[in-house]
Automatic annotation (TrEMBL):
SUPFAM superfamilies: Chemotaxis receptor methyltransferase CheR, N-terminal domain, S-adenosyl-L-methionine-dependent methyltransferases. It comes from the Bacteria. GO terms for molecular function: protein-glutamate O-methyltransferase activity. Keywords: Methyltransferase, S-adenosyl-L-methionine, Transferase. PROSITE patterns: CHER. It comes from Nocardioides thalensis. This is protein-glutamate O-methyltransferase. GO terms for biological process: methylation. Its EC number is 2.1.1.80. Residues 1-245 form the CheR-type methyltransferase domain. It catalyses: L-glutamyl-[protein] + S-adenosyl-L-methionine = [protein]-L-glutamate 5-O-methyl ester + S-adenosyl-L-homocysteine. It holds the Pfam family CheR.
Length: 281
């Protein structure tokens, strides 16, 4: 980044403060690429733009949105979705036979491909008489607006979406594709910073916390894993990204979870309470 001394440091401190994401040294090029269009839009240099962020909440929001890493795709990594359909869902259909209702949380949902991938599977595999709700949350308001709109470019729908699903679950919307209303109405969005308390969310049968912990430092990651525990209902599931694990977590966090292999997918399940009382909040 060809910026004045201190510019990169103040951007990385801002991102850390607002999202807990750690922007290591060496990502200067990314900061410049993401902020330059915003700076140009208000007619200033990246340095000048960064200097105004502390006193301009609207631009600060846009800058933080631009600096989050939103990489995602439909049915990302495939195997977790296969495990969901073939193992988790049948088990949950037995477990929740009385309420006949499932709640899923896509925490760090990005532009919504994860939430809508699950919605498509539930649409196909949930027996008649069952209902479901998917909560999609993210720290980026721009991403949440995208989830609500459910509109995707031709490039985006090409990333992991089977053609049959495109035909069945999307409508043409100009140059884009829009998720059909019957799936969109099942997905509600919520602005939520994972590094802050999870208030009023209730419990979920499956929580997808995928490909986001990698951006946090160890203390933040373990704290999130600890606070996640009460959000997963009895015999529910927590799914992390394929490179994320609790193996390195301290015992007070690791002991809250039981690791289980479903094929080659590791899932976490709430560990049975021990006799020692441990605060989960
Ligand atoms: C790489 S995407 C992962 C999307 C999706 N879970 C997947 O696996 O495809 C990471 C997402 O985490 C969000 N994020 C980053 N920091 C966050 C935080 N502190 N709280 C909530 N979401 C956060 C970003 O905005 C981004 O949308």
């Amino acid at each position: 980044m060809t910026a004045a001394p201190g510019t990169y440091e103040s951007v990385s401190a801002l991102v850390r403060r607002e999202t807990s994401m750690v922007y290591d040294a060496g990502k200067e090029y990314l900061v410049e690429a993401r902020l330059r269009p915003l700076a140009s839009a208000v007619g200033c240099t990246v340095d000048e733009y960064v200097a105004r962020l502390p006193v301009d909440p609207a631009e600060r929001r846009k800058a933080v949105d631009a600096l989050t890493i939103n990489e995602t795709s439909w049915f990302r990594d495939h195997a977790p979705y296969q495990a969901f359909t073939e193992s988790m869902l049948p088990a949950l259909l037995e477990e929740r036979a009385i309420t006949r209702r499932l709640r899923i949380w896509s925490a760090a949902c990005s532009s919504g491909q994860e939430a809508y991938s699950i919605a498509m599977l539930l649409d196909q595999h949930l027996p008649a008489g069952w209902s479901y709700e998917i909560v999609a949350s993210d720290v980026s308001t721009a991403m949440l607006e995208r989830v609500t709109a459910g509109r995707y470019s031709a490039v985006e729908v090409n990333r992991g979406l089977p053609a049959t699903h495109l035909v069945r679950y999307f409508e043409r919307a100009g140059n884009e594709w829009q998720v059909v209303p019957q799936l969109r109405e099942r997905v509600s969005t919520r602005h939520l910073n994972l590094a802050a308390p999870f208030l009023g969310l209730g419990t979920f049968d499956v929580v997808l916390l995928r490909n986001v912990l990698i951006y946090f430092d160890h203390a933040t990651k373990y704290d999130i894993l600890r606070r996640m525990r009460p959000t997963v209902g009895t015999n529910g599931y927590l799914l992390l990204g394929s490179s994320e694990t609790t193996l390195d977590a301290p015992p007070e966090v690791a002991d809250l979870w039981t690791r289980e292999a479903i094929g080659r997918v590791q899932v976490l399940r709430p560990a049975p309470p021990t006799n020692g009382t441990r605060s989960l909040t």
